[in-house]
Amino acid sequence: MRKLTMIEAIREAMEQEMEKDQNVIILGEDVGVNGGVFRATDGLQKKFGEDRVFDTPLAESGIIGTAVGLAMNGMRPIAEIQFLGFIYQTMDQICAQAARMRYRSGGRFTVPMVIRSPFSGNVRSPELHSDSLEALFMHSPGLKVVIPSNPYDAKGLLISAIREEDPVLFFEPMKLYRSSREEVPEEPYEIPIGKASVIKEGEDATIATYGGTVPMVLKTAQAFQEKGINLEVIDLRTISPIDTEAIKESVDKTGRLMIVHEAVKTGGVGAEIATIVSEECLYSLAAPIVRVTGYDTPYPVQTVEDDWLPNVERITEGVENLLSYQ
Amino acid sequence: MINIFEKHQPTEMYQIVNERGEYNEAALNDLNLNNELLQNMHYWMLKGRIMDQRFLKLHRQGRIGTYGPFSGQEAAQVGSALALSKTDWVVPSYRESLVSMIHGTSLKQFLSYLKGYFGGNRPPEDAKLFPIQVIIAGQVPHAVGCAWASKLKKEDSVTTVYFGDGATSQGDFHEGLNFAAVYNVPIVFFCQNNQWAISTPFEKQTTSETIAQKAIAYGMKGVRVDGNDVLACYQVAKEAIEKARKGEGPTLIEAVTYRRESHTTADDWTKYRSQEDVDAWVKKDPIVRFERFLMNKGLLTTERKEEMVKQFEEEIEKAVKDFEGTPLPPAHETFDYVYEKPHPQLLKQREEFKNRLER
Ligand SMILES: Cc1ncc(C[n+]2csc(CCOP(=O)(O)OP(=O)(O)O)c2C)c(N)n1
Ligand SMILES: [Mg+2]
């Protein structure tokens, strides 16, 4: 099978859905002629025309607000927010508008819109270009939040997101855009939203993670494997709605849980998972839950980010703590 | 006083020195500038260009992070910045490095920003200068608030806020202008219309013929100025600042200029604009034009210019070398400016972080 990078897989998912459905359109800053600052929409305006791929004025709230109206009147917009740090500009349109249009209108209207946005760190970007803001949207009923970690998942999840009847936020870890090439089927396929994937089986402890930290968690788990310690790794893939079953099943088996994410610690995805575990399977736990996350500060400058983010050293130490508890 | 705001429509472009270095005698006499100020304008424009090109080179060598160059926009920045007093506030975006330096940031400080050192975006204590804003138009309402505070405190200070053509599409721009007019605050909105917002040309940003005319809707004065003519930029900024100082209202200035380089070092302009587009604007270069003017007036010679270039190159080289010898600030400082006093959980995180790095 041919191999694609994650950015190529994302581009292909959009291209195939646009071929299939005339109502799928793309709007965002620099997505047309320039093909997006990461080339996610490269060539799509050329192929589908200026009536389906729009270079918008520079206004995020305008992009999302008009996408809501487009979606309510039959279109299926894919809106790009150039970097996730700029999504703060659109909080009203996402959380107070898109998220509750179905509810507000008693089901008369839906907002089948996808918001794509690059995020995550280790890439030496300027301020507000690397922040992980996913937890903000997990706290808004009506939204779904999807975060792929590899080319295969990215294509299948994005196709599902475009076909969804409710608004989906699709956040793409920039550092994984071109970090590997993997086999991706040519034909369109769906990966269900809301389902986690166990990417490594093991019985000694569970590590739940998603997005940019998946490769380093896997690498750490493989290093432990060589020492005879079998860690189970779950790639959540969707953080809202979260796959409670997959977490419960794994923790029931291993009795130990560590959560790894780049986002700041307090009020994050890790906090939600820990609560789910205490509600669903507290008595399966043999050790306190460990979180390895960003610290509770704004995302730091380039010279500090690698130490501030989860890294192999911090994850290894976390696993050791988790296992040391008898 | 020429009184530009009475005599010109927002859609007319105000100019003193044209592309060939020819000038409007009457306007110039009226300006009544001393030679020292003219030479100071040239000093900063030339230094700015050399610095900007040097930073692009440092990026290619991997010695600084992402950089947003301003080559081509020197006249707009220098003209407006030299019209300010030290007691006036400057609120910049990421494109106005030259303005920030004229208003008090050192080369060393700017290097620490570009190299991603903690504290790199801390404006010097004695400069009335806001930190660099990355969010497009986010600084516009801040500037209005800053000017409003000066008014409430009855301080003699005018605020100038800088932003680009793309920024005029954001709600923050429109909300800021409206507040400024409603509260009649002492502010100058200085838009550098460099024709591009990354790959988006001005025509796709708005169907207004000019940015200056947007002022009318908010009940304020708007003026369009040749942003590659340093004297015109100086004159327009000066009048707008004095008008604001007298409590006669805010002004929107649109300086028509051009971004000669790519948007930042992460961008490649060949993807979306033609060589002809660039060449046409290079002919209107602000420095070439002003040097012709100065040479005609006997205020500059080729030899003097070469000396200056050499001196700036050495100065910048030395600053970079010196800076590269300075140690990184301790990484745990990243915890020290979240709150006035870190809360207990944060202190605990700081300890863990610090201990880990010191191991
Ligand atoms: C809210 C927000 N949206 C998008 C961006 C990404 N971005 C950075 S600069 C830029 C273009 C800005 O154009 P303009 O206002 O004309 O200023 P210029 O860069 O030309 O100086 C964009 C889209 C951003 N920094 N902030
Ligand atoms: Mg611009």
UniProtKB/TrEMBL annotation, chain A:
Source organism superkingdom: Bacteria
Cofactor: thiamine diphosphate
Protein known as: 2-oxoisovalerate dehydrogenase
SUPFAM superfamilies xref list: Thiamin diphosphate-binding fold (THDP-binding) (SSF52518), TK C-terminal domain-like (SSF52922)
Native organism: Oceanobacillus caeni
UniProt xrefs under Pfam families: Transket_pyr (PF02779), Transketolase_C (PF02780)
Keyword set, alphabetical order: Oxidoreductase, Thiamine pyrophosphate
Ranges for domain Transketolase-like pyrimidine-binding: 4-179
Family annotation (InterPro entries): THDP-binding, Transketo_C/PFOR_II, Transketolase-like_Pyr-bd, Transketolase_C
